[in-house]
């Protein structure tokens, strides 16, 4: 299996830690930033804890770092106010900052490879349509659970949770989030499944 080298792993970890420090220091709302990046911290701790017994493929490690950067940047600017999203909004003439839409696409794109890797290495599945179907189902389940977290935050915090929810007044925001996660998972499998298989089967 093709995994990252020790030096590469340290470098990737350093990138995530630096992103956490940089975005936390410059966060517009430290509370919102903390709620957004708690998944990054939890994921980093988990990956480091299992790196000896369950090392991840190089592809997955790089994707996880990408996902971490997307979450950190969104948390820094509360998604609805990200400069990149505002630039795209002006460029396309849209009514809202769509950075959160991109983030939910990534929420399907990256976990699809993570779920696929776990299923291939820890279940009887060896590939095919059932693997793809179950991978997409798990990604959608993760997305739905995140929407439950947002719902609970809205109930507990009321208006204080608006930055975390980042709905920007869209009554269909939850549906959009899950749909884009679905799209991200499907695109990821279509583009990366073969490359992922090669890395899983590579002998180092």
Can you put this structure into words, describing what you see?
With 204 residues, the protein is mostly helical. It is 77% helix and 0% strand. Helix 1 packs parallel to helix 3. The longest helix has 29 residues, at 129-157. The mean pLDDT is 89.
Tally of helical runs: 8
Average pLDDT over all residues: 89
Number of strands: 0
Classify the beta-strand content into a percent band: under 5%
Rg computed from alpha carbons, rounded to a whole number of angstroms: 17 Å
What's the story with the biggest beta sheet? none
Give the CA-based shape. globular
The assembly state of the depicted protein chains is single chain
Unreliable parts: none
- Span between termini: 6 Å
Structural class: mainly alpha
Order of helices and strands: HHHHHHHH
**Helix content, binned percent:** over 70%
List keywords for this structure.
204 residues; mainly alpha
Summarize the structure in short:
Helices cover 77% and strands 0% of the residues.
Secondary-structure topology with pairs:
Layout: H1 6-25, H2 30-50, H3 58-77, H4 83-92, H5 99-122, H6 129-157, H7 162-165, H8 173-201
Helix pairs in contact: 1-2, 1-3, 2-3, 3-5, 5-6, 5-8, 6-8
């Amino acid at each position: 299996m093709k995994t990252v080298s020790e030096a590469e792993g340290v470098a990737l970890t350093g990138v995530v830690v630096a992103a956490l420090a940089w975005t936390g220091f410059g966060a517009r709302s430290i509370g919102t930033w903390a709620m957004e990046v708690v998944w990054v911290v939890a994921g980093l701790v988990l990956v480091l804890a299992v790196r000896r017994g369950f090392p991840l493929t190089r592809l997955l490690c790089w994707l996880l770092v990408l996902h971490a950067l997307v979450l950190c940047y969104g948390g820094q600017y509360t998604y609805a106010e990200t400069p990149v999203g505002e630039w795209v909004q002006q460029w396309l003439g849209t009514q809202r900052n769509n950075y959160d839409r991109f983030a939910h696409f990534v929420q399907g794109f990256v976990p699809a490879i993570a779920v696929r890797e776990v299923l291939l290495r820890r279940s009887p599945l060896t590939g095919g349509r059932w693997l793809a179907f179950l991978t997409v189902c798990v990604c959608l389940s993760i997305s739905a659970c995140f929407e439950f977290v947002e719902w609970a935050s809205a109930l507990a915090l009321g208006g204080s949770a608006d930055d975390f929810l980042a709905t920007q007044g869209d009554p269909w925001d939850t549906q959009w989030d899950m749909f884009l996660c679905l799209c991200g998972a499907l695109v990821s499998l279509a583009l990366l499944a073969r490359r992922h298989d090669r890395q899983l089967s590579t002998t180092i």
